[in-house]
Sequence to fold (247 residues):
Amino acid sequence: MFIGIGFSLVFSILLCVHVVKTGREMYWLFIILAFQPLGGIVYALVAVLPEFTSGGTARQIRSAARKAMDPNADYRAAQQAVEDSPTVSNRMRLAAAASAMGRHEEAERLYAEAAHGIHAEDPALLMGRARSLVELDRCDEALPLLDKLGELGEAGRTPQAALLMGRAYHRLGRMSEADTAYSWAAGRLPGLEGIARYAAFLAETGRRTEAEEAMVEIEKRAGRSTGQFRKEARHWRDFAAEAVNGA
Fold:
């Protein structure tokens, strides 16, 4: 036990020396010493490991570690950017950060405020606001935005827009239209959200055989997922399985 404590202390001291020598923010000293050994491990992943590695993997490690330590950092940075320069781009960034935190009312308001003048038919703004409205169960307001997206041509006729349209029709009880939209999106979207939501819809509407067939495909694709996509794949697999098994 004493050896383990001693190793942890030496490890922490070495990291503190690294903090001072490399001019890192001094709050790292508190994190390293107060949360031994976890604080030191996080610091090593964020600051030390990238010095020896480069490329996409290192960036993913740094991003994941930062989010674990401060999950609201992206939102605060976006909020500061809007305060410094309230451009459409910065408002969109803040809206996306708010949406990621589940603050859909704020996101919807920000998207609406940005969608004026030459930006009134910006596909990204229309899509973001429609998604927020669906999450808020204001689907009757989301559908006109999605219809407008469809009128914009290829830029608006995306699988992501079709999935949102399926969800909106579903919530409003327009099942035939929901089926068409879900089916089109499920066959084209990467990842498992599209097919998982369609499987749940099929189960709910009594099409159990089709739902089970979709579930087989979901299991197959989830089993092939790797790295950062594995957690998301498990989420949508479980989402679909709960709906299909509970039907």
Observations:
- Residues 123-246 form a domain with the Serine Threonine Protein Phosphatase 5, Tetratricopeptide repeat fold (CATH 1.25.40.10).
- The two ends are 53 Å apart (CA to CA).
- The first helix runs from residue 2 to 21.
- The CA atoms of residues 93 and 111 lie 10 Å apart.
